[in-house]
Write a structure and sequence with these properties.
Layout lengths: L2 H12 L9 E2 L2 E2 L8 H7 L3 H11 L3 H4 L7 H7 L7 H24 L1
Antiparallel strand pairs: 1-2
């Protein structure tokens, strides 16, 4: 997913008139407050998985939402499942783990 398509997807979901109210904790909706993706998926003519993945981006803190396109989108979706106060640390941990795994793969290829 490209940065522009990820941001467009988030904006599309925000404009989709999701059921309200969505509870906010530290600026981001809680995972439990995210609506079931069935109705938005039907309304947007998309799969439930597509909607769920983009809804997880809405649970990011505003600082991390601003970094969509600069950080790997799969890591941001994973971080969106964490409480707001843990998201930044979780993102850094996932990035470090990915870098270690890639270094190990490169080392094994050299052998």
């Amino acid at each position: 997913m490209t940065a522009s398509s990820a941001m467009h997807s988030v904006m599309t979901l925000r404009a989709a008139k999701l059921p309200q109210p969505i509870a906010f904790a530290a600026g981001a909706p809680t995972r439990r407050a995210i609506p079931n993706p069935i109705r938005p998926a039907k309304r947007l003519h998309r799969s439930q998985g597509w909607v769920s993945q983009r809804l997880s981006l809405l649970t990011l803190t505003p600082e991390l939402q601003a970094r969509i396109g600069q950080e790997p989108i799969d890591l941001l979706r994973a971080v969106g499942k964490k409480p707001a106060e843990q998201q930044q640390a979780a993102l850094e941990e996932l990035k470090e783990r990915r870098a270690r795994e890639e270094a190990e793969k490169a080392e094994q290829k050299r052998k």
